[in-house]
Amino acid sequence: MGQENNRRYAIEGAHVIDTQTHQQIYIRALLDVGCYEYVSSNLPCSERLKIINAIGEQQAIAMMRAICESKGRAFDEEKDGRLNIKILKMLAESNY
Fold it and tell me: Could you please report the per-residue DSSP string of 21-87?
């Protein structure tokens, strides 16, 4: 199943592409808890986690780092990456 998920999602710049539906998902809508893109996305937390797990947490964090650096924003892997993943897991467990 893991390999099937790995083939389902492709990375194009700052987007994750669902190869089955061709939906483009901006990495900030998946991982940047609290930002406009995240808040305005209708993806449930469980779906966001599924996608992050499929592409790999390290890949998702690397994508966020690249976005932050391209905008001249500081990036703290622990706070901006791992903590957001922990928050997503807690929200998914509470069915948010």
Answer: T--EEEHHHHH-TTSHHHHH----HHHHHHHHHHH-HHHHHHHHHHHHHHTT----IIIIIIHHHHH
The whole-number average pLDDT for the span 81-87 is: 92
Among 54, 27, 29, residue whose Cα is nearest residue 44 = 29
**Are the C-beta atoms of residues 30 and 36 closer than 8 Å to each other?**
no
Angle (nearest 5°) at CA 40 between 29 and 54? 25
Q: Summarize the confidence of residues 87-96 as an average pLDDT.
A: 86
Classify strands 9-12 and 15-18 as parallel, antiparallel or unpaired.
antiparallel
